[in-house]
Amino acid sequence: MKKVLLTLSLALASTVGAQFSSGTVSLGSTGMTVKLDTSSTLATITLTGADTSYLGIGFGNVGSGMSNGADGFIYNASANRDYTFGGIGVTPTADASQDWTQTSNTTAGGIRTVVATRSLSGGAGDTAIANAAGSVNIFFAKGPGTALSSGYHGGGNRGYTTLSMTGTLGTNDLLAESKKVVLYPNPAKETVNFKNADKIKSIDIYEATGRKVKSVQVNGENISVSDLQSGSYYFEVKLKDGSVSYQKLIKE
């Protein structure tokens, strides 16, 4: 029974996936914007700003952002994008391992848009980025005038902000969501309804201990659960296309 319960728990967990995004955030008076997106494996930065200047962001709090050892991404005249800061007033140095991969670099109307990806953990010295809701503190700067080479940003060309990461659904996720079998209400007392019930072939219901209590054929859009004792149950929903969906129900 423990094996059955573990299998059901892992299967239920595997159906839960998420992506997060900060949305496009304006960066003070610099004319820059940044967007941070995460998936289960990757972080993606989209950075925009004047196409005549270097554009950079780093990870850190107000007052300590450019401190020695801080991690950053800088678009500049070189081929390097992954940098470590050496402190305020010190030009950042390129990391030995370039973990950011630039995937796009376009200009239009005097604005450059740079897109780069990296694993969530990055490499040695990189700031780990979580694929989760929460806050990410960053600092940012651009070069003065037509400075594409890294150097002093000049007055007014830098600042700090906090990115708020929230969950998102992509096009494929929205399509999958529209076809997903979902039980409701949850918790339930007498009857459980199913969204997309016409896709269901049969249902096996398990107690929290892993013991199967019954199998159900769905005729219509709901089933009775009045005979179940109060507690937690796992529904193994076998679909007509041969796939299996897993749901957890709290029975009142």
UniProtKB/TrEMBL annotation:
Please name the CDD domains in this protein's record: DOMON_DOH (cd09631)
Q: Does the keyword Signal feature in the UniProt annotation?
A: yes
The source's domain of life comes to Bacteria
Q: Which residues form the Secretion system C-terminal sorting domain?
A: 183-250
Annotated keywords: Signal
Q: Record's InterPro entries?
A: DOH_DOMON, Secre_tail
Where does the signal peptide begin and end? 1-18
What is the protein name stated in its UniProt record? Por secretion system C-terminal sorting domain-containing protein
Organism of derivation: Chryseobacterium polytrichastri
